[in-house]
Design goal:
single chain, 2 helices, mainly alpha
Length: 74
């Protein structure tokens, strides 16, 4: 019976060590990524602004060319 109790105590200690190490590694994986997220949001805003500006520019150029062509026909 003493041998069984020693085995259980050893297994319990190993299980406790496993749980402790798992909790420690889980907190290590929970890194702070707010700087990377803020950088990505800033880059996305810059790209969106560039696209909107490009679309408006192309529309304005198309309108102006259409206006010039229509005036030359008359």
């Amino acid at each position: 019976m003493k041998k069984v109790m020693n085995i259980l105590a050893t297994k319990r200690a190993k299980a406790g060590l496993l749980v402790t190490s798992a909790l420690g590694s889980a907190s290590a994986f929970a890194a702070d990524h707010t700087a990377a997220i803020n950088t990505a949001v800033s880059d996305g805003t810059t790209n969106y602004t560039a696209i909107v500006t490009g679309v408006i520019t192309v529309a304005a150029i198309g309108f102006c060319i259409g206006l010039i062509v229509s005036k030359l026909r008359n």
